[in-house]
Amino acid sequence: MATQQSIKDSIGKSQLVQGDRLETLLSRVDVKRRFEEILGKKAPAFISSIISATKANPQLKVCDPHSILSSAVVAATLDLPINPSLGFAHMVPYSGKAQFQLGWKGFVQLAIRTGQYKTMNAAEVYEGELKSWNRVTGEIDIDLNGKKSDTVIGYVAFFKLINGFEKYHYMTMAEVTAHAKRYSKSFGSQAGQWHLNFNVMALKTVIKLLLSKYGILSVDMQKALQADQAIVVETPAQEIEFEHPDNPEKEAEISEAPKELINDANEDRPLYPNK
């Protein structure tokens, strides 16, 4: 279970020196030991994936290695692979530092671990497929045989709980774009994730909003929502904080859910009124 204290412990037990290279940091016995305590036998492969992911991204290679290590620790405490090709968690360069970013598959993985979800998915909606959508009830009717072209007109996320409760969240292309412009300062950047991987970011957006509004949020999922798009920093008081320079309205984004649907941190059950 990833808590702010566990992340702090994972980062703080190794006294890092400014100017250390990433390879130097990861080769240190104390750093290796911390990853082994978190991941056990999976630690060596995870450490190798950090190096591989960094070398594969020229912008990430020049980021502060301590921020790369901190982002990797968050992924490790959530037990999510950092390999970018898998789409679970990512280290994303932003102004010389590495952000931790959760992929949409990461949200699905954390949800599955609660044991409360029967099924979950996110998908593109193509021109001709959307028959009807009720923005009040959230009900949507999609005809997969009605596709007229490869033009994507929107994105939809869906989950169904073991107890039968189900919910959709649909956003038009215009709504996804507007959301991205509001919550990502790097939206217009040629090097930004919305430019490089629009489809992946759009899928993540609909499933993230669906879960934050109506899903069962375990402690790990709540922590993932806070850590997403964050640079992990340690304050002078040795407290771990998540800074969101690319998303100054982060709190507004994750607090869109009605208060009565936000789960207590000690429970994995949703507070559905009148259920």
Structure description:
The chain is α+β, with helices and mostly antiparallel strands and 275 residues long. The protein has one domain (4-261). Helix content is 40%, strand content 20%. It contains twelve helices and nine strands. The protein has a three-stranded antiparallel sheet. A two-stranded antiparallel ribbon has the order 1-2. The chain has a two-stranded antiparallel sheet with strand order 4-5. Helix 1 (4-12) crosses helix 6 (65-77) and helix 3 packs across helix 4 (43-55). The longest helix has 17 residues, at 198-214. The two termini are 28 Å apart.
Query: Helicity, in percent?
Result: 40-55%
Q: What count of helical segments does DSSP give? A: 12
Note the run of SSEs as H and E: HHHHHHEEHEEEEEHHHHEEH
User: What portion of residues belong to β-strands?
Assistant: 15-25%
Please provide the count of β strands: 9
Rg on CA atoms, Å? 19 Å
List the domain count as a whole number: 1
The termini sit apart by: 28 Å
Main beta-sheet annotation: 3 strands, antiparallel
Classify the secondary structure makeup into a structural class: alpha+beta
Mean pLDDT across the residues is 84
Poorly predicted ranges: 13-19, 257-275
Cross-sheet strand order for the largest sheet: 3-6-7
- Which overall shape is indicated by the principal axes computed on the Cα atoms? globular
